[in-house]
Write a structure and sequence with these properties.
alpha+beta, Alpha-Beta Plaits, Double Stranded RNA Binding Domain, 3 domains, 9 helices, 11 strands, about 45% helix
């Protein structure tokens, strides 16, 4: 495959570039190279194994002509052929299109929807679930802002999820969480034991680089104020919290608050990163909406208005509505404890199957056109 040859050559160039002292001096370029190296490593590892297995297979076939070695060689050929077939299948999967944002850090936003105080409590349940999940995936979650209530809930939480050593990217881990999460349970405040349904909207915004979104600072108002904790209790004695408002008072207004650290400068920098990421997400959503209008047959857009998952406490069941059959239901106590990975794996597997079907359909179409 020419594409495999190109990617292997790119991996070699990336490795050489990483060994160049000039790359270490450029923080952004070094991060880009490291990210690309991590993306290409599984494919190159498989390519090297394929070459090794093929060499062993060729050697075993040559020994078939040796009477003394024929039996041993014959016993080795079948497992080697099986492994070679498996490797080719794995390489096909690795060549499938991936989301270019997979390796990016993300801004994670949880917002209470229908359900009042109960929805706010579920926001915090989801925050704890995601904290455990991303830590298990080698990532780090840091809360930037939270509108907490006296009851222990929150109407909104904004957090940053960043990659750690050995992780495969924050967006890749969380991309499937975008949408409306519905919870069905008996609230602690419910005296008659009735089940209530509440919702929380989850947004996963890939962080953008400074030069990716043109943010006109003349359109941004920066306010500073004292950080606040739950119930309005002051948690800082200096005006270090930052509020960034884009096009205040217009239909395009976006407001970002960051009170994560005690440094006003760092809070300002992070608020602008979040603001740029939201602008990029707005542009992406508008672009997808235009594409949907042009392709009426498109389904499964991942639009955040879709109810993607239901957490049913009485039945101890989590149902992901994008999946089918045995793949759609999971034990709630396990998922809410942070074991989200099996759902993510099932969603990724379903996407790969669709991609393979699309690839087969395109190949068949090209073959028929060639025959004509």
């Amino acid at each position: 495959m020419s594409r495999l040859t190109e990617l292997a050559a790119e991996f070699g160039m990336v490795e050489r570039a990483l060994g160049d002292p000039a790359a270490l001096a450029d923080t952004r370029e070094y991060a880009r190279l490291t990210r690309r190296h991590r993306e290409l490593l599984p494919l190159v590892t498989l390519l090297r194994e394929r070459d090794s297995v093929q060499a062993d297979l060729d050697g075993a076939r040559e020994l078939l002509s040796d009477p003394d070695m024929r039996e041993l060689a014959a016993s080795e050929i079948a497992p080697l052929e099986t492994r070679l077939t498996d490797i080719e299948s794995e390489l096909v999967l690795l060549l499938l299109p991936t989301d270019p944002d997979d390796s990016r850090d993300v801004i994670l936003e949880l917002r209470a929807g229908a359900g009042g105080a109960e929805a706010g409590l579920f926001v915090m349940d989801l925050l704890r679930m995601y904290t455990r999940y991303v830590e298990g995936a080698g990532l780090r979650l840091n809360v930037l802002d939270a509108n907490e209530s006296d009851l222990g809930g929150a109407s909104r939480v904004v957090a940053e999820v960043t990659g750690g050593p050995g992780s495969h990217g924050a967006f890749r881990a969380l991309r499937w969480e975008r949408g409306v999460h519905r919870v069905q349970r008996v609230p602690a405040t419910e005296s008659q034991g009735r089940i209530h349904t509440s919702t929380v909207t989850v947004a996963v915004l890939p962080e953008v680089e400074e030069d990716e979104v043109q943010l006109d600072l003349s359109e941004v108002r920066i306010d500073v104020f004292r950080s606040q904790g739950a119930g309005g209790q002051g948690v800082n004695t200096t005006d270090s919290a930052v509020r960034a408002v884009y096009r205040a008072g217009t239909p395009d207004e976006i407001m970002v608050v960051c009170q994560d650290g005690r440094s006003q400068i760092k809070n300002r920098e992070k608020a602008l990163v979040v603001l740029a990421s939201r602008l990029a997400e707005r542009e992406r959503a508008a672009r997808e909406e235009r594409e949907r209008s042009q392709r009426a047959s498109q389904v499964g857009s991942g639009d955040r208005s879709e109810k993607i998952r239901t957490y049913n406490y009485p039945q101890n069941r989590v149902t992901d509505h994008r999946l089918e059959g045995d793949d759609k239901n999971y034990p709630l106590d396990s998922v809410i404890a942070g074991n989200v990975a099996p759902i993510v794996a099932a969603l990724a597997r379903a996407q790969r199957e669709l991609q393979l079907m699309d690839m087969a359909a395109r190949d068949a179409q090209e073959t028929s056109h060639g025959a004509a």
